[in-house]
């Protein structure tokens, strides 16, 4: 079957089984918006929520484990050693095989911890889009982490200035695009919010006279600031008897979660707190709230929870951590952005809203309008269109005849490298020097070696004993590449004059 759209292979770093994280949600949103232009396939490490959502959209899903490199995000000294180690693994060889089997026109990898798809794609000559949704940590090795992303990406997409800040290098700036997140408003069913509010509050045992202050995090751990929320909440509860509190999220560290709840237990007010482990249908939770607090302690790549609270017309109070500050400033909520770690600032702003009903309602109504203006779908699609228009898709050229920096030339066949033992063996097979591609030595070293093709074969990295097929009269002719085409071109990637040189099977052109 011929494809009328370029094929994009999209790698998600995680696929959580019970719930969907912010990074997964944002990736899926982008994929949906790319569907009119690209033939998308999603690659996930295991089955889970985002895979099921993709299948509902008729997006093919491939389950394949690809190791993550967390040290790239945390900018540690051993990141390159860890990458090199993973390139010797079975998963790396399976990744190369996947790319050769799927033959994508473009690879998209998501988040800083997922470099291997980018490295493999770049090594195979496939254009790479790298999306960053988190800010690399500031360490003495941050520039080295940025260098990895610069080397293995053709295009860089960031969801906020905070996420892109560590990557504003001279080499990355020309290929960087900022595409702020958005949402599909109709899918939130705004016509049902009043009913959803009443239903959820009834379930939680909350009356119309109560004011519900909410905290939401798909995964609850120390950096998400639940302890600060609890410290604020117990003080608010003493001043405002109508205040009740809702925690939504899955505790990653049970001991930490219990420690946070102890703040309420110690004041004998645990009965004023409610907890929901996870709720996929956010339109059933946000309407029940009166105020949302997002006290994240780490530098957030964006802060989708804060934006969602505004979309549902709620006052939102945040710590100024990375992208959260950007959301606050972009929506005119600078007065509700609190210095990170300042619990008293959270208390003061919540108290101000609870003490002024007119202000509480006015801020919520303004937030909905401001969120649409700054982050609405029209603005998102305009930014994405500009990026896609600039995207050049070269078309996939499969591995066939390859060499590293050494003299040996290999035939890549059935997932293994078969070395040519001599120039005569190469020429005798009818191959042309111009079809030999140079790939990184790490790829040569990581792939299994099969039976040699004729004659003596030099050892990998050994001394050169004779002139081999990799060099002929001063070196191989440079392979002529197909003309680049824009994304969305109607010409098939597997058909048309000049679309790809070689035999019908996609191999190198043989002499006749």
Provide the helix percentage. 25-40%
> Strand order across the biggest sheet?
3-2-1-4-5-6-7
Q: Can you give the mean pLDDT?
A: 88
- Structure classification: alpha/beta
**Beginning-to-end CA distance, first to last residue:** 29 Å
Q: What's the assembly state of these chains? A: single chain
Sheet with the most strands, sense and barrel status: 7 strands, parallel
| Tally of helical runs | 18
Radius of gyration: 27 Å
Stretches with pLDDT under 50, minimum 5 residues: 458-512
Judging from the principal axes of the Cα atoms, what is the shape?
Answer: elongated
The overall strand count is: 19
Instruction: Report strand %.
Output: 15-25%
What does this entry look like structurally?
With 512 residues, the protein is α/β, with parallel strands linked by helices. 35% of the residues lie in helices and 16% in strands. β4, α6 (116-123) and β5 (128-132) form a beta-alpha-beta unit. The longest helix is centred in the C-terminal third of the chain and has 19 residues, at 357-375. It is elongated and about 90 Å long. The chain starts with 6 loop residues before the first strand and ends in a 26-residue tail after the last strand. The model is unreliable at 458-512 (pLDDT under 50).
